[in-house]
């Protein structure tokens, strides 16, 4: 009889009721679980769980019953709200400008909030990295606000909304933030203070002072954004102050030279005194271009507003173009698209890139209830934790000069490769061969989001390093390795499983940024040493600093930024599934189709590079002296080893493609600068030297396309131009990749 009961139980388990795929993702994300954690608990592969969440596959016994049990428990903790299932009402198409069309949302994502729809796209792309993520419908900010917003009679009432243009939602699914993540505050010709929100919404602002503006923002404006991760925190509202608003609230339109250098207003400024009297506080960086005004949190309630002041250079023109000069509605659109697809800006693009890592992997989470039913704060698995690594516990090879762990070195000591990890991007060039000089063109190709692609799937250390001697190399173990790679001969390497003969004199070494062959033992990150093995050579580390506590910390960060980039490029008419010829045509002048979205693309790319750069932030004045700690060292996200690993992998990814291309075509690069590679060709297009057969690229080589890791056309110049430039500056190895885009060379640039 027991066998019959077992059979009945198995039959019931095989039909265990499961929620729809999007709800499975919501429940997992709400509890802060990663796909890897669920897969480990259920003893299945990561791709299996991803398939269940995307709806491509369904679980079978015995995993189905366990999965159903997990989801049931999560549903008890995080019941679905009406906002989770509400579908935005359709709106009129007439408001959509002719130059902008919102991409249609995938069917499975239409009932999700903006963040959940983005996750649905991420899950699809995670299963097959070569398949671009579907682009969800543009969020509220993605459609240009109507020009009549300022004169709308309904917009003059506090809290009233103007009808959102087609393809948008007025605010997000969370009613607390129904007016969007941010507002640009301006003063109109009649002297009225208005807040321009995303989606064409304009609110009256009754506040007469900065403290009152902060209070209004938190009590009435309904601004902000939901958290990006289950254990995380909601995004604080962002208020952008125009020049007119600055004058209205008693702030200077521009900073004096002294204030600019200090990065803040003096403590005695009248507005700061107003804030103090109202019991508001400023962070340590004071009242500067990106000021944070807050009161200490009480329980889970936060009271914090972020200010952005463009006329104080809050929006760096290198990354935001002329965004700071845009009218309020247009600026709200630009920042709103960025906020909805990346996150609400917390400072510069570099600061925001770093904050995004933490937002996706909060340092702590709520524990399971104790005996008294209370939850406590505990370490969030997969994060970098809430405490910074003690500066004296960093490996000496991984830290920059002047770090406290190096304080005992002689003052003018120059560390060599055997003392210092030096993983940087390429800056390499060589003279052209006689055969290359007979060709007509120099064609530059550029890797899309190269450093983001280098971060994807990369295991990095989560905690402190362990020092080991003569440790057998493990390509899956993040760390820094002292090893001699001078024996790797680029004249004969393995490509795949076969040995091939190459002209190594025309190739840069993969082990040094300048492409020089190493001369002895040097420190390398794991991806670099692993590549030496891949090329067919034995490696024997002398010593290493390895991190046994590790994980794919940057995966979610990569996915979010990739989706933001692809969605915005799709809005600009550059889709991920275009043929090579159509892709090149679509990329021609793509920013001119919508200059505001072009700004967003630049800001997303700057977020990648800047965020990674912040992982090894150097001292910034403040009276610092070599050997003393500086402010950035107090962050858990000060991790030069993670930065080094990403750069190492990015450089190796590029070299792998170059070698594959050389082995197949016999063509070699002339110059490389970071993610740009220059080849000589008979025609001006990348298709004149990239090997395509029936529309398909060389497997493992360069491929034209918009996805991160694929390449686009950077620029084309004549071979004669290249020779004349090098002759003019008497520099036969001048890096032409630096100038290939427009051909302008003002002076010799040494790359520093």
β-sheet strand percentage: 5-15%
- Quaternary assembly: single chain
What is the strand tally? Answer: 24
Strand order of the largest sheet: 3-2-1-4-7-6-5
| Helix vs. strand class | alpha+beta
- Bulk shape: globular
* Discrete helix count: 22
Major beta sheet, specifics? 7 strands, mixed
Low-pLDDT stretches are 85-172, 748-752
* Rounded radius of gyration (Å): 27 Å
Kindly state the percentage of residues in helix.
25-40%
Distance between the termini: 80 Å
Q: On the 0-100 scale, what is the average pLDDT?
A: 86
SSE topology:
Blueprint: H1 2-14, H2 21-30, H3 35-42, H4 46-54, H5 63-77, H6 82-85, H7 114-127, E1 182-187, E2 193-196, E3 202-204, H8 210-219, E4 238-241, H9 243-248, H10 257-262, H11 270-277, E5 281-282, E6 290-298, E7 301-308, H12 317-320, H13 328-341, H14 349-360, E8 364-366, E9 377-379, E10 427-429, H15 434-437, E11 441-447, H16 450-455, E12 460-461, E13 466-469, E14 479-484, E15 492-495, E16 498-501, E17 521-525, H17 526-534, E18 543-546, E19 550-551, H18 555-571, H19 580-587, H20 595-614, H21 640-665, E20 671-673, E21 676-681, E22 692-693, E23 696-697, E24 711-718, H22 719-728
Parallel strand pairs: 1-4, 4-7
Antiparallel strand pairs: 1-2, 2-3, 5-6, 6-7, 8-9, 10-20, 11-21, 11-24, 12-19, 13-18, 14-17, 14-18, 15-16, 20-21, 22-23
Characterize the structure shown.
The protein is an alpha+beta fold and 752 residues long. It contains 22 helices and 24 strands. It has a 7-stranded mixed sheet with strand order 3-2-1-4-7-6-5. Strand 22 and strand 23 (696-697) form a beta hairpin. Helix 14 (349-360) crosses helix 20 (595-614) and helix 17 runs parallel beside helix 21 (640-665). It is globular, with a radius of gyration of 27 Å. 45% of the residues are buried. Residues 85-172 and 748-752 have low confidence and may be disordered.
């Amino acid at each position: 009889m027991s066998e019959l009961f077992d059979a009945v139980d198995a039959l019931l388990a095989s039909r265990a009721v499961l929620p729809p795929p999007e709800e499975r993702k919501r429940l997992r994300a709400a509890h802060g679980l990663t796909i890897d954690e669920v897969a480990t608990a259920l003893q299945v592969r990561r791709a299996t769980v991803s398939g269940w969440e995307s709806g491509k596959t369904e679980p079978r016994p015995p995993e189905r019953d366990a999965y159903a049990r997990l989801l049931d428990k999560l549903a008890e903790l995080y019941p679905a709200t009406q906002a989770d299932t509400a579908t935005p009402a359709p709106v009129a198409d007439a408001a959509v400008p002719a130059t902008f069309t919102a991409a249609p949302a995938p069917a499975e994502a239409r009932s999700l909030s903006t963040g959940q729809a983005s996750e649905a796209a991420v899950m699809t792309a995670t299963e097959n990295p070569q398949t671009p993520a579907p682009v969800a419908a543009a969020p509220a900010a993605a459609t240009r606000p109507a020009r009549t917003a300022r004169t709308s009679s309904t917009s003059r009432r506090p809290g009233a909304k103007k009808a959102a243009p087609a393809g948008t939602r007025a605010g997000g699914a969370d009613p607390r933030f129904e007016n969007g993540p941010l507002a640009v505050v301006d003063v109109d010709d009649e002297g009225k203070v208005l807040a321009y929100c995303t989606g064409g919404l304009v609110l009256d602002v009754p506040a007469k002072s900065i403290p009152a503006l902060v209070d209004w923002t938190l009590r009435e404006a309904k601004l902000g954004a939901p958290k990006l991760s289950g254990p995380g925190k909601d995004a604080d509202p962002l208020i952008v102050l125009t020049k007119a608003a600055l004058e209205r609230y008693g702030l200077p339109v521009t900073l004096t030279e002294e204030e600019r250098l200090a990065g803040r207003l003096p403590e005695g400024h009248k507005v700061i005194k107003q804030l103090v009297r109202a019991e508001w506080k400023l962070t340590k960086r004071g009242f500067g271009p990106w000021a944070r005004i807050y009161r200490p949190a009480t329980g889970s309630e936060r009271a914090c507003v972020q200010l952005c002041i463009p006329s104080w250079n809050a929006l760096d023109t290198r990354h935001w173009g002329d965004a700071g000069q845009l009218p309020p509605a247009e600026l709200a659109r630009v920042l709103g698209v960025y906020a909805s697809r990346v996150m609400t800006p917390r400072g510069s693009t570099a600061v925001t890139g770093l904050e995004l890592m933490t937002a996706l992997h909060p340092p702590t989470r709520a524990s399971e209830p104790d005996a008294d039913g209370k939850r406590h704060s505990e370490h969030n698995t997969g994060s970098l934790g809430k405490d910074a690594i003690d500066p004296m516990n960093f490996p000496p090879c991984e830290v920059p000069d002047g770090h406290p762990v190096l304080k005992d070195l002689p003052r003018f000591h120059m560390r060599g490769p055997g003392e210092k990890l030096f993983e940087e991007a390429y800056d390499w060039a060589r003279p052209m061969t006689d055969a290359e000089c007979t060709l007509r063109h120099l064609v530059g190709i550029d890797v899309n989001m190269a450093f983001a692609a280098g971060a994807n799937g990369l295991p990095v250390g989560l905690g402190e390093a362990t020092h080991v001697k003569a440790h057998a190399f493990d390509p899956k173990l993040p760390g820094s390795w002292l090893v001699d790679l001078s024996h790797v001969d680029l004249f004969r390497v393995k490509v795949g499983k076969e040995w091939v003969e190459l002209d190594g004199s025309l190739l840069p070494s993969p082990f040094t940024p300048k492409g020089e062959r190493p001369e002895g033992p040097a420190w390398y990150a794991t991806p670099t040493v692993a590549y030496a093995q891949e090329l067919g050579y034995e490696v024997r580390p002398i010593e290493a600093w390895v991190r046994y506590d590790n994980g794919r910390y940057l995966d979610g960060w990569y996915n979010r930024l990739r989706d933001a980039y692809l969605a915005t490029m799709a809005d600009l008419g550059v889709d991920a599934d275009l043929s090579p010829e159509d892709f090149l045509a679509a990329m021609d002048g793509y920013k001119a189709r919508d200059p505001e979205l072009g700004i967003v693309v630049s800001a997303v790319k700057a977020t990648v590079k800047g965020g990674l750069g912040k992982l090894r932030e150097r001292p910034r004045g403040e009276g610092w002296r070599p050997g003393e700690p500086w402010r950035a060292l107090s962050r858990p996200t000060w991790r030069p080893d993670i930065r080094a690993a990403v750069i190492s992998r990015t450089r190796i990814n590029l070299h792998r493609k170059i070698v594959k291309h050389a082995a197949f075509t016999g063509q070699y690069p002339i110059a490389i600068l970071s993610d740009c590679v220059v080849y000589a060709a008979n025609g001006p297009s990348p298709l004149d030297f990239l090997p395509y057969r029936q529309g398909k690229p060389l497997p493992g080589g360069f491929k034209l396309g918009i996805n991160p890791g694929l390449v686009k056309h950077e620029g084309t110049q004549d071979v004669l131009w290249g020779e004349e430039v090098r002759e003019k500056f008497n520099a036969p190895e001048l890096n032409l990749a630096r100038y290939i885009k427009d051909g302008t060379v003002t002076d010799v640039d040494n790359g520093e």
